[in-house]
């Protein structure tokens, strides 16, 4: 087993863990964390793929940077939505 | 050889344990702290896999800013919702059975799919190496981000802007920050200039070595957040024209470059001969400032004047 | 290509300009929407006269660059997007209940249009991921405009949309790992039906199906679409769910290996029939008006999914025309229906279907718009919906072994007739009409009527339209 394959499998495992969390958990903040873990799994697959050639593949690295920024943008929005949503539920009670 | 495997093996074991713990530990606070550790460990793995750009970005964005956001969100979550009775009784184990089996099945199918992948190679990488000389920057990742696939990066700046707009319109829920204590003030005065310096350095270095607009922007944002929380920086309200200019500047400048290059006949986002280097630097500066200010506003969330 | 680029850039610059000037000017957006529509029409003319075009962004050669591709279908979708956006903009500027004055509705809707246009033009797997995220964030932000009661559905929509993107992205990563390219045309020359490719295509398909709310991954849609402001519901149902559908179509009709497409087709078609029946059943039973319209979106998307599945299974390019006719007809009819439903419920002050009693007397125009649009959804001749359904049925009628599909379509038609007549019958019950809370807004009602009339108008140009669509799809 090579290092590339090892990290590919690790990435897939993280992705499945995150997916499981997203489906099974209820607390919004935890679900947001699950999505982030899922994202880390995909990024790990991509970075492992970049490792196949002698010089690491810059295209995959660039795509992961893009992915990271997308992830934080979405996380910030989701968190604010979750917190404000909880607040409004409390107000109603 | 065995040392290498020892390192990889322990990293993998650690990150899997952390991931499971993050998801299923009872207290939400513990979960968030563990998630920050997870991010840092991930940065370590990126470095191990020969991706220093990503290690920098992950440490700043993935662990740092996401962590701050999560902690801030936790502070605003009612205590009653902070602990999820994740796996308490035997019944829940039974109920989670099918989901676990399904997950294992998915994992197995994916495993079959990734097995042949290490043998393949990519045509895009060869093309990227071939055209690097004409890209205007020496660092291949920056060349891909700002030249070969500049359209992706432009759209990604739009994603960031969109997230900011979306957050801005939600009702503000930020309690007034407590008075900063003297030690924090002192440290901030010392740290902030340093952070700005390092951020500028990262940006500059990005043209030839790992680093670039996103890493620099995230770092600058961290500095700005620190200063803003200690009230050393004035409020960055949307009603200030300079804030709007800086936030929109990245996208706007990038789009204008696209427009003019098309107009001049070179093709959309095709930098004219000899202009690639300077244009990329300019775009990066605008993008860094945009990213820094937008991330700062996302984290601090100054939304008071929106509904006026 | 200049015209298509203009259609892409005008909405983006408009959004940035509005934000910079802190302007909430509806007329300005209507003006730039008109400009976008003109640019899109120009692109359509260009592509019809001189054939498909492609543009390598940054002028880099083949595997490196992101490529824009302007095909006849792309141009048609640009026009369709601009048309619906313009219509909804006019409605939103005019209507009392769209919250355009105290929110960022205008820049958000412009960004939504810009990201959709970016999606239509692109042909790069990763670039599609970014456009999907843009589209998703814009859509959720728009849903959240209607205030705190929408935050729950909006969050659910956002989380599922993010999860779906990551499912799609893992598929893209596998494809890149296997073939080393991201451009769909290059991919088409290389794909083989091995295990990695199969899993990658399934992952991308699942992610996109979740995003397009295709059965059985549709559960987020009714709440999200129903809780959004009326103008937003129309945009979401008419346009946003079609974005992922477009990618799905490009993937399977261009890039996928033929064996894999033949193998997967029936699954998608069965999901389509299930969507038709179960979505329609939910629409029959829900007590809320906007939920009814939203469930009907789930059901109607079933036809499109069925067309896609059968097109893959039988390798029949003729069904391409049916698929896109469905998309156009459904988009127009649904815009009409949501605008009418929103006006009705706002004027009556109740969100229940039962409040519609006697509306043919109190608000005849809005109710008529609803019924006309409903007629196209049912597929009454000679509407656009009928044309699409006919195109779908035609290849099946000759062969007796296809009768289960025909039966599915007919049953779906019956159910859609059921939920449309449920509303219409109530509206004709004039004995004791529910009195409106406000004075009805006639202009808005006629606006809702407009797209419904266009759908029926499609029938007038059916011959050339079908010929054009059949020739236009590769």
TrEMBL record, chain A:
The chain crosses the membrane at residues 6-25, 32-50, 62-83. Keywords: Membrane, Transmembrane, Transmembrane helix. This is NADH:quinone oxidoreductase. InterPro entries: NUOK/Mnh_C1-like. Pfam families: Oxidored_q2. It comes from Natronospirillum operosum. The lineage of its organism: Bacteria, Pseudomonadati, Pseudomonadota, Gammaproteobacteria, Oceanospirillales. One of its GO terms (cellular component) is membrane. It is a multi-pass membrane protein. It is found in: Membrane.
UniProtKB/TrEMBL annotation, chain C:
InterPro entries: CPA3_Na-H_Antiporter_D, ND/Mrp_TM. This is NADH-quinone oxidoreductase subunit J. Its main location: membrane. The lineage of its organism: Bacteria, Pseudomonadati, Pseudomonadota, Gammaproteobacteria, Oceanospirillales. The chain crosses the membrane at residues 73-93, 128-145, 157-179, 199-220, 232-252, 264-284, 291-315, 362-382, 402-425, 446-469. One of its GO terms (cellular component) is plasma membrane. It is found in: Cell membrane; Membrane. Keywords: Cell membrane, Membrane, Transmembrane, Transmembrane helix. Belongs to the CPA3 antiporters (TC 2.A.63) subunit D family. It is a multi-pass membrane protein. Residues 122-410 form the NADH:quinone oxidoreductase/Mrp antiporter transmembrane domain. PANTHER family: NA(+)_H(+) ANTIPORTER SUBUNIT D1, NADH DEHYDROGENASE. It comes from the Bacteria. It comes from Natronospirillum operosum.
